[in-house]
Amino acid sequence: MSWVFLRDLLSGVNKYSTGIGRIWVAVVFLFRLLVYVAAAENIWKREHDEFECNIKQPGCENVCFDHFFPVSHIRFWALQLIMVSTPSLLVVFHVAYRENREKHHNQKLYKNPGKIDGGLLCTYLISLILKTGLEIFFLVLFYKLYNGFKIPRLVKCDIKPCPNTVDCYISKPTEKMIFLYFLVATSCLCIVLNLTELSYLMFKYSIKRYLKRHVKNQQ
Predict the structure, then answer these.
(1) I need a surface site. Which of 23, 40, 71, 103 has the fewest CB within 10 A?
(2) Can you give the residue ranges of the Connexin N-terminal domain (predicted)?
(3) Which of 32-36, 73-77, 90-94, 118-122 has the lowest mean pLDDT?
(4) Is the pLDDT confidence value at 98 over 90?
């Protein structure tokens, strides 16, 4: 899979982000995207081939694997990474809209098209809310799909066409657990960063409005 689009998207968003937003971009790019591409993707690459059950009943191993891994870990994390980064496109599109509007009217309509104020502030806040909601949604979904954040060494399966309860073994469970905890931790860190940035912008906007109102009353 090519991640050039996601890299370019994060680079574009970085130009219009606050200081906290730039930290979020760094975390997503360095601690999620690069770790995913460089290491995690290889660890889960042959997860189906390395899943073994102590029986050779035709179809039993496949059914057990599908039961315990309804969605591939690696595809799940890839989908999450893409989805939580996509709301940032709203900010990029809004800035592009401002720039095109200035070109159309052939005059300067904004002090800085990329400055977070007015309508762009609302767009930015919406993107933060969407990113936070998607992060939480994927964490909850992962927990529900796999009954927690764990990778056991041994699972017992009694689903047909298995004739009885069979033992199935997952390869490199410790290594997979380390990367699983790492990806979950970085996802939680991104949630904290998004909530912090959301609170900061709302507080800053509230103070700005209060000062404007105060100055207006003084006049």
Answers:
(1) 103
(2) 42-75
(3) 32-36
(4) no
Rg (CA), the chain: 23
Could you say which DSSP state residue 87 is in? Answer: T
Give the tokens for residue 27.
């975390």
State yes or no: cis peptide before 161, omega within 30 of 0. yes
Measured distance CA(122)–CA(95) in Å, rounded: 12
Gap between the Cα atoms of 28 and 190, Å rounded:
8
Of 218, 186, 159, 185, nearest to 30 by C-alpha is: 186
The full set of domain ranges for the chain reads 3-218
- Please answer whether residues 39 and 171 qualify as being in contact, where contact means their C-beta atoms are separated by less than 8 angstroms: no
Helix (H, G, I), strand (E, B) or coil at 141: helix
Task: Please tell me the CATH code under which domain 3-218 is placed.
Answer: 1.20.1440.80
Which residues have C-beta within 8 Å of that of residue 103, sequence separation ≥ 6? none
Q: pLDDT tens digits for 2-24?
A: 556 666 666 667 777 788 888 88
Shortest CA distance to 82 belongs to which of 172, 2, 196, 195?
Answer: 2
